[in-house]
Amino acid sequence: MSVETRRKVPNQRWQIYPQKDELAQNLAEVTHVSPLICQLLINRGMETPEQAQLFLNPESLVLPSPLEEFPDLAISLELLQNAIACQTKIAICGDYDADGMTSTALLLRSLRWLGAKVDYAIPSRMHEGYGINNRIVEEFADEGVQLILTVDNGISAFAPITRAKELDLQVIITDHHDIPPKLPPADGILNPKLINPQSPYYGVAGVGVAYILAVSLAQQIGDGYKGLFKPMLELFTLGTIADLAPLIGVNRRWVKRGLRQLPKSQLSGIQALIQLAGVQGRKREQGSREKGAEGEKMSSQTLKPDDIGFRLGPRINAIGRISDPQIIIDLLTTDDMGIALEKAMQCETINRQRQEMCGQIEQEAIAIVETEYIPSLQDDRVLVVVAPHWHHGVIGIVASRLVERYGVPVFIGTYEDEGQIRGSARGIPEFNVFDALEYCRDLLGKFGGHKAAGGFSLPAANLPELRSHLSKFANQCLEVQHLKPLLKIDTQLHLHQINQELYQQLHSLEPCGIENSNPIFWTTNVTVVEQQIVGKNHIKLTIGEQIGETPSESLRERHYTIKAIAWRWRDYFPLPSRLDIAYKLRENTFNGNTTIELELLGARLPNQPQFSFDSIHKSAKTSFVYRQRRYTCGMYDNGSVPELRIKNPEGKVLAIHPHNSTGLLGSNRQNAKEVDISQPPYENIIQAAFAALFILSPKQ
Prior knowledge:
With 700 residues, the protein is an alpha/beta fold. The protein has four domains: 3-56 and 487-604, CATH 2.40.50.460; 66-343, inorganic pyrophosphatase (n-terminal core), CATH 3.90.1640; 379-482, Diaminopimelate Epimerase, Chain A, domain 1; 613-696, no CATH class. The protein is 38% helix and 23% strand. Helix 8 packs parallel to helix 9. It is globular, with a radius of gyration of 28 Å.
């Protein structure tokens, strides 16, 4: 196979979940869903009937009172009730991302509904950066504010909160970011990171904390609760999905409700966004209508998280990245449809600008990487890409695309005035971005983040040393085999199994998102029947699979084809004619007809390792020579699962199970480590072992 041909497929690591057929069958008998769905549940950690039933029916989750979970919720409610009763001025300090803006809008709407005098401020992304600051605090004080309420920020703002207390202001912090060593001196702090990690509220985003506060306040005041519930739920759903919060626990329950509510939203801003984005609710299958929190039947239509993640969310986030967040606050708080449509049109225009900006910066960044860093990438194990004139509001998006393309951590920055660089970082599973920034703390100005992403600034003169430090850190935690994008695959399908019935079954897993990803399937040795470029960067395909080994008169019945789309795969066009493919399922509606299609996420050449345990005699044992070293190998029973074991001259054994992309390597099971067997040298040694064992096995 030539190098040129090998470049026509994505450079990926495939990790296929172990297939637990017996457990899946047992779960299926209890839950009354198919074994395939049960395998998907097992892959997501739901291995008992109780876990599976709770996941499939999140409304059965018994929620403790938030007052029992959040220690400062009672005092926060008391402060807000007093402010409303006394008509003292409340001010919200929000943030410029989708979570912060939806949180701000949610509390503005709620507090105004409940009779509060309330205003808001959001710091300038361009000039001030994230979080409440002294300027905002002092302006609030000058305006007669007596109670500050932060949303989606504040947990690390020790100095500004201290300044607020010096000015005799009361402060309630609502945030969800990691807890610093020293908490600010606020009157009340609501943060899920301060509660029991087993709590169903632990994974809420900033908008989730705001939602809990607003609902609790409305319930205590007693008036207007039902009128508030629907708009608050819709804003919670928008912010939670757009912020990539985990869709488990209470998030799963409330987001599922919110997605059903959004198609019939009474908020003018959401109506306008949905209309201009061309989002349409999907019909739920008959008989699955459920009751909401107030007992009424919910809409028979629902949105999907992808409608928010890829359609509505980017239009909101684009404003915070390159424009004025007030546009979104006005959009989500107005009841005037004319104003809502005007603001939504601004979102459309600015999002198009953001897309063009991202595309241009991405191409410039790729050109820099390809000309300057590719030869040393396996040694550096991290990309640090900096250029002038890039908008720092969108470079985080470009960083994510570079991670997707090159499979390594990416630190991307742009020059600001006075010799400063400001940047964003995105990681891979084996690399902790925040730890990397901590490792380089002496070279940086401000920095922050978490395991997967972060932001930073530094003097431009420190850039060469930063590259060196990050490379040193990356070499401590990354092996060469980690330097490919990781694709986690649920289970194998044949194309003839894909139909509306299967797609409807998958609805039981919704809403899918972070920590409950859309199921990813794979099919081996398919034929690319047709392929063409559509749009600027996408490939549209027809994929075929033949069931059986020899052509016959029934070939028409045994050859299955299906349409597919591969987003942003222009670089791989034309794809090889035969492939193993990994994909999600998607609905496509055209001229009133709805069909199921594949959305390709991965592809590899079919001569890559596909271990055929069935072709080897179950007790076969032999030896073979690989690169002038003699190995022994054999098939063994490990419970009910066959196991291939290969022993090297030093006595270490590599043990592999069918369908796994990893094996165990060690002198015994107790000290064995997990290795990726799709990587060299393991894949070649394994193929040599199979070839030796196959010779001994009786022919079928």
